[in-house]
Amino acid sequence: INSITGNYLASPIAISGWIPEGEENPIDLTTSIGNFNFTTVFRDLDPLLRGSKFLPTGTGSLLLTLNGSKKLPEIAGTLDLADTTAGNAFVNAAHVDVSYSAGVVDLINVTAEAYEGSIEATGRINLLPANPTWQIDCTFANIDLAQYLDSNGYYAYEVNGPFSGTASGKGDFISQDSLQMDAEVKSSSGKYLSPFSSRFMNIAAGTSNPGKADESELTDYDDIQINLRVRESRINVDRLHFVSNDLQLEARGWIGFDHTLSGSGGFTIPLDKAKLHPKLRTVVALLPSSVNRVSLEFSIGGTLENVKINPKIGENFLKGVLDRAGDALNIPGNLF
């Protein structure tokens, strides 16, 4: 085939090369599809599928090379995407180098620009087992989490800052329990919805307050570190470290795929603000105003739809207050 050119679904297509007779003779065939539009590609689908948010939108181009033989074909491909959405994700641009040989698909190089940051990844899909498996390793840098949260309606606990980290995962395409993932996420500066803003306090009190937070309700944070593991249908938070002027937090726990959760930790906050908080004021009500900051411990349980938080004054902190104040401070022991 010297050259075949044409258009399909408004996209230019070119094919050249050869496919010889015989099962083991070498193949050399190149196919390119330029500037295709996902909406056009999927326009003939069943109407119920056509409106699915999981179908991608955007534009792209594809180059495929077929080598090897009919008996053992080898495929190499390059995919470029622009302004593409799939599900709740959006990328400004992406480039994918992929190959196939002997039942194995290798993601040789994946790069993307998304949410003001960048993503790089490699991976493999093994099609040989009866239940095909996959694995992936990726790094990401300066991802603006607020853009993702805003585009998906997560306004309640807004975080605005550049996030970087690494993630690796593996599993199969059938069993949910097969998913294993490890991730480390860091951010050294940004803003978040202050736990002492009126909006956050309304949320804590169970009062609905939809919509995006005002700039005046955000405050700076200095450090966030999160270490995650996914095992046996459970997201394990091995460490949640958070530092700002108003809040220092260390916590760990887990969230199940069935929406159950459990966790514990400790945090330090200014006493005057704790006395205004609907979930904390009864716990710290008897502490004297001479205490500038209070250390609290907490446990979390319930479900994502009904989170139950139980705060209490840290025993070591309260013991220190009692040691300093002596008999002049009378705090009931049942606070801790």
Task: Explain how this protein is built.
Strand 16 and strand 17 (261-270) form a beta hairpin. Residues 327-336 have low confidence and may be disordered. This protein has helices spanning 38-41, 47-50, 145-151, 198-204, 271-274, 281-284, 315-325, and strands at residues 4-8, 11-18, 28-37, 57-68, 73-86, 89-101, 104-114, 117-126, 133-144, 159-160, 162-172, 180-187, 190-193, 218-231, 234-244, 248-256, 261-270, 293-303, 306-313. The protein is mostly beta strands. The chain has a 19-stranded antiparallel sheet that branches. It contains seven helices and 19 strands.
Tags for this model:
336 residues; 19-stranded antiparallel beta sheet; elongated; disordered C terminus
Summarize the structure.
It is built from 7 helices and 19 strands.
Shape: elongated
Helical percentage? 10-25%
Radius of gyration: 27 Å
By secondary-structure content and strand pairing, the structural class works out as mainly beta
- Distance N to C terminus: 81 Å
Low-confidence residue ranges: 327-336
What's the main sheet like? 19 strands, antiparallel
Number of strands: 19
Strand % is over 45%
Spell the H/E element sequence.
Answer: EEEHHEEEEEEHEEEEHEEEEHHEEH
Q: What count of helical segments does DSSP give?
A: 7
Overall pLDDT metric = 83
Layout of strands and helices, then pairs:
Blueprint lengths: L3 E5 L2 E8 L9 E10 H4 L5 H4 L6 E12 L4 E14 L2 E13 L2 E11 L2 E10 L6 E12 H7 L7 E2 L1 E11 L7 E8 L2 E4 L4 H7 L13 E14 L2 E11 L3 E9 L4 E10 H4 L6 H4 L8 E11 L2 E8 L1 H11 L11
